[in-house]
């Protein structure tokens, strides 16, 4: 299906990001013009202001706000740091360069801007996210982690030197890296009708080798463990812009389960952001009940696994959903866990030939 | 330059691998035909049999050997496991499927072959490497880790469904994943005259954005920390098959230094293998002396850093080379370390515009 209507989404967003930075700067200048000490206010990210929103199906920030005023001697430093971060992000965007959190920390020294440590600099970038509502990736500040995608989607690059060039995501059978160039590309064309996200690299390769993308008309996304933020945003875009349902396959343990949950409902750390999670995505396996039904080879749950399950049982993201509650209870009952590779006990292709189609049907 | 003469290296090697497995099986059958208990012998990998070879510039195994005999009750299990691993590897090769160490462990259960745990199964795969002299990647058993490459090299795939298809490694500006399909491809054409290996993802992206591949006619390899084995083998192939010098850029600390050393001289764990290291590769930075000369922002060395430096000082790979010895001494003297990103204090492109050209000249 052609996706012309979304063709300019990336350019549109870039304009919004630049406008938000400009707005940030304008507010400061306006206050200066009026002869008042400039003040920036933003929602508080303190724990008591983070609430789970059952409608949005993610964490959000409440009504409490905090401000940084140039009038307050204790605020002068974070106020200046935040203004610098906005200026630096604007430079990155204009110069079309990408950066990392680590780079930002050292780059500050080129401007005689001091940060006590990496954590302080990271916090200021999170402040900038909170003020503007955009994520740091929108400001060209990318993480190191890299995951991958494979399948029949043609993208059109927007990065310098590649504008207008296209790549079909079946071009490289090891998978295509999800980095700044990929996440900033437009979606030009796809024949896929679903997204399958996979936790493990070995299984991602298996799925490609066994032509899961063809047999199931799927785009395959490797999360490589906990999905990096840009990968979660990429999955959200696949869902929203291409109207594709998303199925998530992880290891059958509390950690795998939570990898799926963070893709679906996000994290408390990102309560100040939208568009990093995909509420309609579904966790298709490996469920605790799959471990029982498929008689998988298992390892016993250890103490940290069990502690984690009790935590998740009380987590608002896991409430009011019979599936998650049932699976947590089953884990606690059987006291066992199984990895995705455990299906190899029935032969290397069993997971593709038998398990996958069954679970796709079951969770649709 | 066209590289026709190496065009069939991959196919050639595949034949050698299959022949080595066949040879393994034939030896067992021959012994059975003669009415004797089959025995497999191989070099011992015990510490006292691992020696550093200054000529090969890597660790090698000495003359001691061990055997696994079906006659010895204590050997029956490892003998059977090793024979199964050879059979399974042969199946993977014939079916042109890839696998992982984890997959091998679970796949054994499909054959009623028991391994006590993952470690036992990993050890048997290492035995198979030792017996045949080929690495597990040659038997289609790949690690999870993924790194990347970027630059003007056109590869020709040999994996099913992609035979004869080519990809230029500038196709995706986030870099092309180094996975089973890439490492098993033939090198068709390149204009590059050097390889630059980089430890950090952020810097790899920076180098691409700043067109280092064009300005320096380079293939850029992201090691993503300690280079995975298949990436080390890939670098070796770039050096051997394309006659390209290799320059390595890491963080300026004992761990970064050792990332370079393992690419150059390999590890004791792989003493039973060749072709995983590139003795002619050079460590171009960040040196301890660079930290001083470039007045980089630093962190103090902590206790584990210092302990590590004393270990490396005695390591045979670091002996007889004035550069390494000087740098270790300098680290111990200044008691400081610096990351690659530290150059950002002079602006985001300083590392590309000033540092890189200087160091390439210095280490050629």
The helix/strand class of chain A is alpha+beta
Number of strands of chain A: 15
Unreliably modeled segments of chain A: 1-5
Helix fraction bin of chain A: 40-55%
In DSSP terms, counting alpha (H) and pi (I) runs of 4 or more, how many helices of chain A? 13
How far apart the termini of chain A lie comes to: 21 Å
Shape of chain A: globular
Q: At the first level of CATH, what is the class of the largest domain in chain A?
A: Alpha Beta
Average pLDDT score of chain A: 92
The chain pair with the largest interface is: A-B, 52 and 52 residues
Second-tier CATH architecture of the largest domain in chain A = 3-Layer(aba) Sandwich
What strand order characterises the main sheet of chain A? 8-5-11-10-12-13
Order of helices and strands of chain A: HEEEEHHHEEEEHEEHHEHEHEHEHHEH
Percent of residues in beta strands of chain A = 15-25%
Oligomeric description of these chains: homodimer
Q: What's the gyration radius of chain A in Å?
A: 22 Å
Number of domains of chain A: 2
Main sheet attributes: strand count, strand direction, barrel closure of chain A: 6 strands, mixed
Task: Kindly identify the CATH topology of the largest domain in chain A.
Answer: Dna Topoisomerase Vi A Subunit, Chain: A, domain 2
What would you say this structure looks like, in words?
- 2 copies of one chain form a homodimer.
- Chain A has 2 domains: 4-139, Arc Repressor Mutant, subunit A; 147-362, Dna Topoisomerase Vi A Subunit, Chain: A, domain 2 (3-Layer(aba) Sandwich), CATH 3.40.1360.
- Chain A has a 6-stranded mixed sheet with strand order 8-5-11-10-12-13, sandwiched between helices.
- Residues 1-5 of chain A have low confidence and may be disordered.
- The radius of gyration of chain A is 22 Å and the shape is globular.
- Chain A has 364 residues and is of the alpha+beta class.
- Chain A is built from 13 helices and 15 strands.
- In chain A, helix 1 runs antiparallel to helix 2, helix 3 (101-110) packs across helix 4 (118-132) and helix 11 (303-314) runs antiparallel to helix 12.
- Chains A and B meet through helix 3, strand 8, helix 5 and helix 6 of A and helix 3, strand 8, helix 5 and helix 6 of B.
